[in-house]
Amino acid sequence: MPMAENGFGTSAAWAIATPGARMFRLFPRMFGKVFLSFWASSLLVLIAVGVVNAALGTRPLLRVWLANSLTWYGQTAVELYEHGGPSALNNYLTDIQASGIDGALLGPDGALLGSHKVPATTDTVLARERLSRRNENDIQTWTSAIPIPGNRGEYIFVALEHPRRRARIAFQPAALLARMVAGLGVASLLCLLMARYLTRPIRSLQGVARRIAAGDLKARAAPVMGPRDDELGELAIDFDRMADRVQTLIERQQTLLRDISHEFRSPLARLTLSAELVKRGDTDAASRMEGDLRRLEALISELLTLSRMEASDRNSRRDRIDLSGMVRRILEDAAFEGRPEQKTLVQTGANEVMMQGDANLLERCIENVVRNAIQHTPQHTGIEVNVTLSDETPAGQVATIRVIDEGEGVPEHALPHLFEPFFRVSASREQSGRGAGLGLSISQRIVELHGGAMEACNRAEGGLEVTMRFPVVQGWGSNVGPASRM
Q1: Which of these, 403, 379, 387, 374, lies nearest to 483 by C-alpha position?
Q2: What residues have CB less than 8 Å from 382, skipping those under 6 apart?
Q3: Which residues in the chain land under pLDDT 70?
Q4: Which of 124, 115, 162, 170 is nearest to 144 (CA)?
Q5: pLDDT tens, residue by residue, 222-256
Q6: With contact defined as beta carbons under 8 Å apart, do 351 and 479 qualify?
Q7: How many whole angstroms separate alpha carbon 449 and alpha carbon 356?
Q8: Residue 476: how many CA atoms within 13 Å on its side-chain side?
């Protein structure tokens, strides 16, 4: 650990980190930061490899090059000697000596071949080669002894690199600079591509977000970013889901505002007309004004309730409630409303179903559905309210309330919209003219706040069935008893 002992590692890291932090401030964009991070990492890797090699004194590439190149020289010398004799060998050794290699060739019997003597500094590598019978290279003295197989046996090529050749091979400033520039160029290109690959989808997502902020609610990220199976692709999908939800909420809000303005327009116009008639002495107009004012008051009350539902928290209030007892009290009060037209209300199912929830909200929820059924069931008919508790399941028990009337039902195309604010079905279910069209919407919101679900369907034998389901705390049971008639 020489670098750690002399403090080189700490000082180098500080020297790099300090200007690196300054450079990061010059690149506020994410692309510049990603590119600079990858580029600095590549540079640090190159520096670390060079420092480690220098500290440990290892030059593996130079050793491999030296062995391979001298082996080729030795093979050429053996071939020339076997085919051309000593004269051809002497000429070849003289030629390579001019290029900076002082070489000699020993025969299979160890005798010197040719006129070129063995360099004096090669005694050590020659002795090691005779013991190991393999290539021996000394990087410190630039000497080598290499066994070369031939037709007459195994020769030994002994070589010494001249100082001028060593300097040309070991240190070439131009070549070293070229290699560094090429390495940094390749690293920069790779870092550029990687930074672009990472930041391009983010910029695309940013562009979509700006389009949505400018009012283009139909802008989506997935088509712009293209098919991707990575985390950025999943982010685009989640972003589009969020955009879909925001678009739906805004469209619902716009629809609600249009419906509210429509609902207010008619009674306000009648009030204006009635006020003018009262000024002219028409006393009958005062009673019509009173009816319109009551309608406006009811509408405002329903809107405030719906607004509170949107801002409510599921855990805002949790009372222990006997759902069957609550239904029983609601039916007792509602029976007076149906008595003039001889509409009967019947409760069936369990006598006691316990659950947790907001008692006031749940009572409002069930009452809205029951009164809606009373308004739309014909004379001399009945309404059944069935309260049951499901069997124990891994997810717990579910309390179910079914409100069944004997009216004409609802057209199938209107069922999905039945719980939308201000939605009314035409013809017979609208003829009463009572209510603001918010009762079922409020009921559905209350059911959802209690973690349940609400749905409506037409019965085969006639009439509409509205079902409300609520989760029940485990361990609370129910008692089933006979139906009660009101």
Answers
A1: 387
A2: 343, 344, 345, 346, 406
A3: 1-31, 33, 46, 49-67, 163-180, 183, 256, 259, 262-263, 306-317, 392-395, 424-437, 473-486
A4: 124
A5: 888 878 777 878 888 898 899 888 888 788 777 76
A6: yes
A7: 12
A8: 19
> Which residues are registered as beta bridge partners of 485?
346
Q: Provide CB contacts within 8 A for 49, sequence distance 6+.
A: none
Judged on CB neighbours under 10 Å (0-12, 13-18, 19+), 71 is middle
Which residue in the block uniquely carries the two structure tokens 């080669």?
129
Question: Using an 8 Å Cβ cutoff, are 349 and 314 in contact?
Answer: no
Q: Residues 389, 399: contact at Cβ < 8 Å?
A: yes
d(CA 272, CA 421): 26
**409, 415, 421, 425: CA torsion to nearest 10:** -40
Q: CA 446 to CA 242: how far, in whole Å?
A: 24
Pairing mode, strands 484-485 and 344-357? antiparallel
Cβ-based neighbours of 391, under 8 Å, separated by 6 or more: 397
Instruction: Encode 288-320: b = buried (16+ Cβ within 10 Å), e = exposed.
Output: bbeebeebbeebeebbebbeebeebeeeeeeee
Residue type present at position 247: Q
| Residue 204 C-beta-side C-alpha neighbours within 13 Å | 19
Q: Are 122 and 130 in contact (CB under 8 A)?
A: no
CA 341 – CA 428 distance, rounded (Å): 16
pTM of the model: 0.48
Domains of the chain: 2-58+172-198 (no CATH), 60-170 (3.30.450.20), 222-309 (no CATH), 316-485 (3.30.565.10)
The single-letter code of the amino acid at 208 is V
> Which string of DSSP letters, residue by residue, matches 24-44?
HHH--SHHHHHHHHHHHHHHH
Distance of CA 140 to the CA centre of its chain: 58
Beta-bridged to residue 480, according to DSSP, are 350
Burial 418-456 (b: 16+ CB within 10 A, else e): bbbbbbebeeebeeeeebbbbbbbbbbbbbebbebebeb
Alpha helices, DSSP H, located in 280-358:
284-310, 323-338
Residue 433: the pLDDT is 45
The answer to whether 424 touches 437, Cβ cutoff 8 Å, is yes
